[in-house]
């Protein structure tokens, strides 16, 4: 699904970037340019960042 229409970025690209170590909204803006044009995608991008961080914490707690 497209998240950032301005820069043609899909949710899978964002998830892949986060999984490979890109850190948060600032990192995604630098690497994929999401949220740097009209800004309409920022809430959805932030939801994906939050989801990724929640999953990371859950995995860390389970391993812990």
From TrEMBL:
Care to name a GO molecular-function term for this sequence? 2 iron, 2 sulfur cluster binding
Q: Which domain of life is it from?
A: Bacteria
Q: Which UniProt keywords apply?
A: 2Fe-2S, Electron transport, Iron, Iron-sulfur, Metal-binding, Transport
The residues covered by the BFD-like [2Fe-2S]-binding domain are 2-51
Obligatory cofactor(s): [2Fe-2S] cluster
Q: Give one Pfam family.
A: Fer2_BFD
Q: State the family named in the UniProt similarity comment for this chain.
A: Belongs to the Bfd family.
Kindly provide the name given to this protein in its UniProt entry: Bacterioferritin-associated ferredoxin
List the source organism. Answer: Moraxella pluranimalium
